[in-house]
Structure formats: structure tokens, C-alpha cells
């Protein structure tokens, strides 16, 4: 009992010291908009007022201000950069603290040796390790661009391009043959062996329309009369038959071919960074110039150095923000993409709907998020004690559970367990897979309607006045004849 009383007096003494040393303190704090650590309140414009923001960091600062009497303002720059030293100069919010523009930085800021040279860090607020975030094989939600492009995916771009060039060339050749060949409809009409309508069968417009109709298997009314024209058209029909059959077969295979057992093993066998290095089917990247990138850059272990080398060989796998990396993981379907990031943020995004992400933990190394203080700042100790008190009484954990909650489960694969995914035997042809063709059909219907309106307008403005004028002229010519006939009677 005396020990408990003495401990209570010690705690009261610490709090009284904090109250005395920090009374009237006003802090200028820099942070970044990184959900769930900090975000603007919906419908409120950003400013230095902390009430305009919400998130994990905001709640921690508010709880600290209850233990240490201080007020604070939030400086939230738009650049979104944590901080990297370039040519001896720090940028981002780290640079703001180093240059004494603000008192401290409150963000998911990783403690590194380079940053510690110019900053003081608080005791850890969160601990984490590097993890590998990937997309579940069954959870792909194609974007509008993917749905449109999926219709053309069965054939390579070079095949589409050469087919279009072949269409232009063959249409031109058919028009030239039908225009110049004496055995064609045009010549026969001049000799009185065909009607004017038949003579117009292969004008420039009709020649191009004839070939594209054959491409869509619409049939035709008249074919070329000459042997040369028939040979060209026959060769085009053979090409179109092979084109349509090849496209149909390739599209069927693409839609029905689902994840094989090898594909499942390809995902589930990624249990560590070493597994990621040994495969080539999955691209992987990380945050550009982030602490994770710096960790691999400065690592002395060969396999970690190898990750940095692979990433540098293809700079396109680096992302500017964490949200961009998560978006790329979710939307990649031509080649799968894995994003290496901190476990705390990975856990947050994996818990959010549509529950299409999972991550593999590789906690061989751990680090922490901490507040960054100005070097040799006099209030460092008081604020650290406040963070310790929040950790000891469980408030820090309650804040974390509040902001990192989600509706998804089963988002983490333990490297020591043989976790697998339950996958269907093949992909069904659902609306998402077929919506590209429907969108193209809608575009064609709308375009046909617009062209019809234009044709009606042209007819009413150009053709109809000519027809009416011709009918009036015929009526005038018939009237004198009728009068002459009456006179004779």
C-alpha cells in the first residue's frame, strides 16, 4: 500500500510539472492529409484551425493537450511530401521542422537515421513492418477504360492496325476496279445494259460501305461483275472469315479462362520479400522517395539491395502517393502489381470495401511512426511523457481502433500458415466483362441517330426544294397542252 501511494504521488508530481512547464504554450504543428491519420472535415475548407480536420493524429494531439495544457494550429501543405534530404537540404514537412518554420510534425513519419541527425523524435506512436499488398484474384473490378479495351484485347494492337489499313487499301482497289473496268456496272449502264441505280453500286462511298458490311457479315445486294473485282472481294471475304473466327475464339478463351492452380500458387506463394524477388509474373513497387524506399536503398543485406535495384530498373513502378499505389494494385489486370508499404497503412486500406486486397507480413524488420521535434527543443520531454501516459492508460490503442476499423476480414496471410483462396473454375461472362460491347453498341446507335437527323435536314433543305420546283415546272408545261386540246374541241 505505501508503494501504491508513493506511485500515485509520483504520477501527480509528473502531471503538475507538465502543467507548470507548458502552461500557455502554443504550438505550430505541420501535418499531411493522409487518411486515416488526417483529413479535412467534410464540407469545411482547409485552414490552420484544428477543428477543420479529423483523424488519428488530431485525436492524439487533442488527448495530449488534456495532459499538457497547450493550444496548437495545424499547417497542412499541399505538396504531400514527408521529407527527403537532397544535396544537404530537407524538403517536405521534415524540412519545415529543420528550418524552424514549425515546432513539430505530426504525421505517419518514419524514424530513420538520416532524419534523426537533424531532428529529435518522440517515443513511438505506432510500430510497423514492411508488408506486400496485393489484389485478391477474385476481386477485380474493371474500370470503364478496362471494360472498353477488353473488347479489343483478344487481338494485338498490330493486328487491329494492319486490318484497318487493309480495309482502306482493299476498299480503294475495289472502287478503282469498278470505276475503270469495262465489265462493271458503271460501264454497262452507259451501254444501256444496266439501270442508273445499278451503276451507283460501287461509287467511292458504296465501295467502302460494301467492305465494312462484309466485315460485319451483313451480306450484300450486288457484287462486282468483273473477274478482277470478284477475285479481290473473294479474298477479302476469306480474310474476314478468318478474322472473325480468330477473334471469337480468342475472346471466348479470355473470358472463360479462370485462375489455374498455378495462378493460385503464384499469389499464395508470395510470403516474403525473397519470394517476390524470385518471380517475374508480378510487378512490385513502393512509394517514391519514401522511408520504405530509403530503407531498401541503404540496406546492406543482398536480397534487400536486390529489391532496390529491380525498382530502379523500372521507375514506373514507383508511386507518388500511397493512394496511387493502392489504386494501381486494384486496377491492374494486364499484369499484376504488388505494393510494398508499412503494415499500419496496409491494414487500413485492406479493411476498406470492396475487400479486394490482402497483404503478406514480413516483419523481419520493424520501425515506428513518431512525432518530429525541432532539435534540442525544450518541450520534448513533456510531450513524450504525455504520449507515455496515453499508451499506459490504453487511450492510444482506443484511438487506433477507432480510425483503423473496417468491414473486411481475412486480409492478411500469415507466412507461417498455408492460406489459400477459394477460386471459381472459370470467369463468367458478366455485365462487367460484356459492358464494353454494350457501350460500343450504344455509341453506334447514338451516332446513327445523329446521322439520320443530319440526312433529314439535308433532304429538307436541299433535295425537297428541288423536287418541288421540278413538279411545278412539269405542272406549268402540262397546263398549256390542256388548253390547246380544249381549243381544238
Note down, in words, how this protein is organized.
The chain is of the alpha/beta class. Among the domains are: 2-126, 3-Layer(aba) Sandwich (D-Maltodextrin-Binding Protein, domain 2); 148-235, no CATH class. The chain is 53% helix and 11% strand. The chain has 19 helices and 16 strands. The strands form 5 sheets. A 5-stranded mixed β-sheet has the order 4-1-7-15-8. A 5-stranded mixed β-sheet has the order 11-12-10-13-16. It has a two-stranded antiparallel ribbon with strand order 2-3. Strand 5 and strand 6 form a beta hairpin. The longest helix is centred in the last third of the chain and has 58 residues, at 431-488.
Amino acid at each position: 500500500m505505501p508503494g501504491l501511494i508513493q506511485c500515485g504521488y509520483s504520477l501527480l508530481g509528473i502531471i503538475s510539472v507538465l502543467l507548470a512547464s507548458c502552461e500557455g504554450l502554443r504550438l505550430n504543428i505541420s501535418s499531411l492529409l493522409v487518411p486515416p491519420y488526417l483529413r479535412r472535415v467534410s464540407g469545411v475548407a482547409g485552414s490552420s484551425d484544428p477543428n477543420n480536420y479529423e483523424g488519428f493524429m488530431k485525436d492524439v494531439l487533442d488527448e495530449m493537450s488534456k495532459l499538457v495544457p497547450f493550444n496548437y494550429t495545424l499547417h497542412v501543405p499541399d505538396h504531400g511530401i514527408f521529407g527527403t534530404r537532397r544535396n544537404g537540404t530537407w524538403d517536405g514537412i521534415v524540412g519545415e521542422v529543420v528550418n524552424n518554420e514549425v515546432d513539430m510534425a505530426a504525421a505517419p513519419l518514419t524514424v530513420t537515421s538520416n532524419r534523426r541527425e537533424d531532428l529529435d523524435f518522440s517515443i513511438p506512436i505506432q510500430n510497423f513492418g514492411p508488408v506486400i499488398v496485393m489484389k485478391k484474384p477474385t476481386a477485380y473490378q474493371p474500370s470503364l477504360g478496362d471494360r472498353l479495351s477488353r473488347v479489343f484485347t483478344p487481338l494485338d494492337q498490330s493486328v487491329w492496325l494492319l486490318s484497318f489499313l487493309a480495309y482502306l487499301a482493299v476498299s480503294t482497289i475495289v472502287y478503282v476496279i469498278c470505276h475503270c473496268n469495262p465489265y462493271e456496272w458503271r460501264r454497262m449502264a452507259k451501254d444501256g445494259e444496266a439501270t442508273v441505280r445499278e451503276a451507283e453500286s460501287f461509287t467511292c462511298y458504296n465501295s467502302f460501305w460494301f467492305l465494312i458490311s462484309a466485315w460485319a457479315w451483313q451480306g450484300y445486294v450486288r457484287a462486282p461483275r468483273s473477274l478482277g473485282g470478284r477475285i479481290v472481294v473473294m479474298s477479302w471475304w476469306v480474310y474476314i472469315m478468318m478474322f472473325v473466327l480468330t477473334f471469337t475464339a480468342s475472346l471466348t478463351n479470355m473470358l472463360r479462362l479462370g485462375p489455374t492452380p498455378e495462378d493460385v500458387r503464384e499469389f499464395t506463394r508470395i510470403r516474403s520479400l525473397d519470394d517476390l524477388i524470385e518471380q517475374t509474373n508480378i510487378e512490385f513497387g513502393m512509394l517514391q522517395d519514401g522511408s520504405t524506399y530509403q530503407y531498401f536503398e541503404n540496406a546492406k543485406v543482398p536480397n534487400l539491395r536486390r529489391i532496390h535495384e529491380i525498382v530502379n530498373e523500372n521507375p514506373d513502378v514507383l508511386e507518388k502517393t500511397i493512394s496511387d499505389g493502392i489504386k494501381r494494385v486494384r486496377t491492374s489486370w494486364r499484369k499484376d502489381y504488388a505494393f510494398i508499404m508499412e503494415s499500419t497503412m496496409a491494414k487500413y486500406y485492406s479493411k476498406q470495401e470492396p475487400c479486394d486486397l490482402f497483404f503478406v507480413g514480413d516483419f523481419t524488420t520493424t520501425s515506428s511512426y513518431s512525432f518530429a521535434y525541432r532539435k534540442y527543443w525544450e518541450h520534448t520531454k513533456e510531450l513524450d511523457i504525455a504520449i507515455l501516459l496515453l499508451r499506459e492508460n490504453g487511450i492510444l490503442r482506443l484511438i487506433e481502433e477507432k480510425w483503423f476499423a473496417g468491414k473486411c476480414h481475412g486480409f492478411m496471410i500469415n507466412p507461417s500458415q498455408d492460406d489459400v483462396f477459394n477460386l471459381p473454375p472459370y470467369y463468367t461472362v458478366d455485365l462487367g466483362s460484356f459492358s464494353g460491347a454494350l457501350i460500343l453498341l450504344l455509341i453506334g446507335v447514338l451516332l446513327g441517330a445523329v446521322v439520320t437527323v443530319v440526312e433529314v435536314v439535308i433532304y429538307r433543305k436541299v433535295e425537297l426544294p428541288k423536287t418541288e420546283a421540278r413538279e411545278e415546272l412539269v405542272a406549268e408545261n402540262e397546263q398549256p397542252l390542256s388548253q390547246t386540246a380544249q381549243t381544238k374541241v
